[in-house]
Design brief:
mainly alpha; 76 residues; 0% strand; elongated
């Protein structure tokens, strides 16, 4: 979803979006943990940011694999 938002909001190359997406998602994870520091019964953890960032990277890698498989099928 971040990919689509960046693609349609800004005029950037598609390759750059694959770099901007994990950065954007990691920044979101940081701000989410920062927000949790103000919430009662919630604790901000660096490990949560790391896990969220890894999840974002895995999701992006999965999208790359899916897009490559679709492209191969279309060429066949």
């Amino acid at each position: 979803m971040i990919y689509i938002l960046i693609l349609h909001s800004f005029r950037v190359k598609k390759q750059l979006i694959w770099v901007l997406s994990p950065i954007t998602l990691s920044l979101f994870a940081v701000t989410d943990e920062w927000h949790q520091s103000f919430t009662v019964d919630r604790t901000p953890l660096v490990s949560d940011v790391i896990l969220d960032s890894i999840g974002a990277l895995l999701g992006i890698l999965l999208m790359i694999i899916i897009l490559r498989i679709r492209k191969k099928r279309q060429l066949s």
